[in-house]
Amino acid sequence: MTHSHPLDLQIVAEALGQQRFCFVGLIGSATKRARFLSQMRAAGLPEEALARLICPIGLPGIEGLDATDDPLYGHQEGRFFHG
């Protein structure tokens, strides 16, 4: 999202509080997820809203941080393209 964890938290909390999104995806680690959930609980967000947070996002089974670890990476000669 951004380079600011406090701003990311504010954005995620606002999106979850809207109740118009089926889920909110957040790039980050399981530790970041736990920290955000703790802070949003303390701020009073209901558990049903918190349950819509998907973090970390991505495909199951991909452990690396390198984009080339992704089986969908660069279908054409290592280059990304948009459909």
Topology record:
Layout (H helix, E strand, L loop, with lengths): L4 H13 L6 E2 L4 H13 L4 H4 L2 E2 L29
Overview of the molecule:
The protein has a two-stranded parallel sheet. The protein is globular, with a radius of gyration of 15 Å. The chain has 83 residues and is mainly alpha-helical. It has 3 helices and 2 strands. Helix content is 36%, strand content 5%. It has helices at 5-17, 30-42, 47-50; strands spanning 24-25, 53-54. The two termini are 22 Å apart. The protein has a domain at 5-58.
Characteristic key phrases:
83 residues, mainly alpha, 2 strands
Largest sheet composition: 2 strands, parallel
Beta-strand segment tally: 2
Number of helical elements? 3
Shape: globular
Percent of residues in helices? 25-40%
Proportion of residues in extended strands = under 5%
- Give the overall average pLDDT: 82
Q: Pairing-aware structural class of the strands and helices?
A: mainly alpha
Based on CA atoms alone, the radius of gyration comes out at 15 Å
What sequence of helices (H) and strands (E) makes up the elements?
Answer: HEHHE
**Major sheet strand order:** 1-2
Distance between the termini: 22 Å
Q: Provide the low-confidence segments as ranges.
A: 76-83
